[in-house]
Amino acid sequence: MNHAVEANADGLIGPTHNYAGLSPGNLASERNRGAVADPRAAALQGLRKMARVADLGLPQFVLPPHDRPDLAFLREIGFSGDDAAVVARAWRETPVLASAAFSASSMWAANAATVTPSADSPDGRLHLTPANLVSNLHRSLEPEQTTRALRRMLPDPERFAVHAPLPARPHFADEGAANHVRLCAEHGAPGVNLFVWGREAYAPWTGRFPARQTREAFQAVARRHGTGRAIFPRQCARAIEAGAFHNDVVCVGVRTALLFHEAAFEDTAGLKAAVRTAAHGLFEPVFIEVSEAELPLDEAIRSYLFNSQLLQVPGRDRLVLLAPVEVQESPQARAAAERIASGNGPIGEVAYVDVRQSMRNGGGPACLRLRLVMTDAELAAANPAQRFTPELHATLRAWVQRRYRDRLAETELADPALIAEGREALDELTTILGLGGDFYPFQRA
Ligand code: SUG
105: Cβ below 6 Å to ligand 1? Predict the structure, then answer.
């Protein structure tokens, strides 16, 4: 067995962060539609979270934001002229499509890809399939650039297989690691992979809100990665109905611990049996179930308790639950968190982090990061300029302070100056993160 650790790659929050209410079934996004955003504060909050995790001794990487507005998309749907004309006409004629082109949604890196560590893949490579995100227009604009970003961060094809996204069809609707959990004895040991899906491609879906992940998508991902010990539990329809648009809104797991709300899965008994069977001979899973009586589903979703990062900190026996401050502010969620971390279970501590700007769009601490279980050799092969250090933190902080606006209302997105501001900022970022001079579409034009 190779020694491995859990690394996190967080999406750096981009200069057009705003609240457009683009995601039906994501209650925070719907509720905050039209609110005034603070992109600078958002990016700084994200960086502070990265620093928190890096300070605990976990390898941390930074994924670059995408170039927004997505002018190629706007041109594809018929807007023409120079860039300013394209954007002006899009806002005038189809504001809902314009706002999709401006979304900074690539920040939610848990939706960047699904990951199979080398310990679970037959060819010994680390496999990633970027998510096609076809369920929401604004998010469907991400996969191409995300694929490029992952290939820059993990450049060695002998070690890393960054696949193409699945076919962009509703049958293969895929939201990436937000619906995947890996349990194991130790990171470098073989794991059990839970691929949680909401609907079947050929079954009618009658829910009020979309089920974003199909079973067929995850079966295809597991097939192409050759993922070992894959099981396919179904998300509970009631959870989707209540606003759990991804499984990571009601469940998080790492090592032997699976923490979830009683309403997370369609068949909890079946899930436990399947995990036990798959883990047989490897480890004894620990199920930490939070009941409706302890924390009603609605409050779980409002507070985002389950969207915490569950971290194995070097030198500590028990796991740290890094929860959003909204949990601390909810008496019921906080009591549940404290109960979970007391006693002799695998979770020993709760800590809180402020990512409020992202939370208002339904993106908690766990949404902002993509987990990558990596061996020492794989870590050494990743792009070192994207590795988070105190120096990189200082550089990025200064860059954000210099380049980002501290207020962005939806009407202000139409300001033509925003296009050049964003590009100048991102052009500088490619140097900081060692991404090369051809990383963004505007650099290749
Ligand atoms: O896809 N919000 C994102 C939040 C993603 C959270 N990710 C995880 N749960 N892993 C989404 O719904 C809202 C954008 C807006 O409304 O402006 C948005 O896209």
Answer: yes
Q: Ligand 1, atom 8: nearest CA belongs to which residue?
A: 367
Q: At 381, is the secondary structure helix, strand, or coil? A: helix
- Whether the Cβ atoms of residue 319 and residue 254 lie closer than 8 Å to each other: yes
Check if the beta carbon of residue 120 is closer than 8 Å to that of residue 229: yes
What is residue 1's predicted lDDT score, i.e. its pLDDT? Answer: 85
- Collect all residues with Cβ–Cβ distance below 8 Å to 223 and sequence separation of at least 6: none
> Looking at the DSSP assignment, which residues form a beta bridge with residue 415?
none
User: From start to end of 68-174, where are the E strands?
Assistant: 113-116, 126-130, 160-162
The yes-or-no answer on residue 66 being catalytic is no
| Residue in 30, 108, 179, 251 to alter for ligand 1 test, most ligand atoms within 8 A of Cβ | 108
* Secondary element (H or E) of residue 255: none
Rounded CA separation 139/152 (Å): 21
CB < 8 Å & 24+ apart, contacts of 419-424: 419/69, 419/71, 419/83, 419/84, 419/87, 421/15, 422/14, 422/15, 422/16, 422/67, 422/68, 423/67
CB of 347 sitting under 6 A from ligand 1:
no
pTM of the model: 0.98
Taking only the tens place, the pLDDT of each residue in 148-158 is: 999 999 999 99
Provide the pLDDT for residue 214: 98
CATH of domain 4-68+103-437: 3.75.10.20
Cβ 248 under 6 angstroms from ligand 1: yes
Regions of the chain short of the pLDDT cut 50: none
What is the whole-number distance in angstroms between the Cα of residue 294 and the centre of ligand 1?
27
Output phi, psi for 342, to 5 deg.
-95, 175
